[in-house]
Structure formats: C-alpha cells, structure tokens
Amino acid sequence: MSSKQAPAGTQAIGRALAVLRMLAESPDELEASAISSGLGLSAGTTKRMLGALVAESLIAQNPKTGHFYLASGAILLGQAAQRGFGLDRALPVLEDLNAETSESVNLVVREGSESVVMMRVQSTLPLRFEQHPGARFPLYSTASGKAMLSCSPDAEAYVASLPARMKPLTDNTLRTPARLEAQLTQIRERGYSIDDEENVAGVRCVGAPVLDSYGNAQAAVTVQVPTVRMPKRRVLELGERVQIAAKEVARFVPIDRRMSG
After folding, report:
1. pTM attached to this predicted model
2. 91, CA 20 to 30 Å: which among 47, 121, 124, 138?
C-alpha cells in the first residue's frame, strides 16, 4: 500500500467534475437516476452531489421535470476559460471561415487520445451535421486528430500504442496503425488532413494544425462538410483555406502556455 494518500476531498471533487462533464456532453437535461447509473454512484451520493452543485449555481433543476442542466455558474466559468485561452479573439477567424465556406467550422484541442471540440461555428445550410462543443472522438478517426498528430512529438508513441486492428466508427475508418502512419506522413507534406467519412458516415472534414512556436500542435481548425457538397476539387480548396485560418488562430491563442502538456 502506498504511503501517499490523496488529498482530502479529492473523490468528491472528481465526482462533481464527472457530473458537470456528463451534463456538458448531454444534449438534453438529465434526471438524477441517469446521472447515478451513468457514474456508478448510489442514489444518496448523487442526491448530495447534485444538491451541492445546485447550491453553487453550477447546475440547476427544472422545476417541471426535476431534471438537471448546467446553470449560470458553469456558463461564467466557461466564459472565463474562453478568455484565458484567447478563444474570444480566435472566434472571428472561425466566423470568417464559416462565412466564406458556408460550412461548419470547429476549433479542436487534444486531450490524451481524443479530439475535443472546443468551439464551433455551425453551418446555416439545411443539410449539416449537428455537433456541440465538448464532443469527443478518437484521434485516428478525425481530421482534427490526424492534423494534431502529424505535428506532435509523441505521434510515433501514439501510433505504436494502437491495437493491430483499430476500432472502426464507420466503414471508412482506418483499421491499422500502418495506414494511420502513412496518412500522417502525407499530412506533414501537404499541410492539411482529411477525414473521408472515417468518423461519421456522410461527413467529410478537412483540418490543419494550430502550431506553437516549436512547431508542435495541441489544437486544430477543421471544416466539416456533408459528402454531397465535398467533391475532390473542394478538398484542395478547403485544405488551403483551413491552413490560413489555423495560422491566424495561432496568433491569438497562446498554444504554448495554455494547451500544451
């Protein structure tokens, strides 16, 4: 048994954060029983946890349904985090790219082996793929993940850690580490990545890494397009444009200090 003990309250903090993340990732309000079963907590523990979060205005309870959702306190924390990351200054870049392409644009960051949507400007066209900030996907199946990996010092270690047969999300998902490694080489040469219906069927994405001063990437800018609006010639056009946007974002978002590590 280790002589080191976790600081008092660590478990409670971890559970509270798990509740907040669960609500952030859900498109709908959640009832207490769903939170309890989703996190493997007893009904009593869940009730106390939810009560504490409500008291701090981090979550609120719908008086009609009894279900829970993120409240004003969480919104204020999110806004403060956006300012700290410089995302308020990066947003106009994403909006310009959205206006120019009429397609959905994401700013994505890396958390371990996942791509996490940090900011999104949604397409206004009738045919589009719905997504929300906080959505998480494997690095190997997304344009953002592959863009970041192509300029990550641990890319080789990440590829080596993958199973011989990777879990497919669609029929087009890359199945082997060797194929991913070959794509990363191509991305480094041309400067942008492609997700050819590898993460979501019917959706193609083009992404470019947001580089820090060392040439490493912990973030990426992507354009997300329904396949019917993405012929091969448009991939090239978007590839060139998304690289420009990624370089502009790098000017505003302090990647070295905020997103690395």
Report:
1. 0.73
2. 138
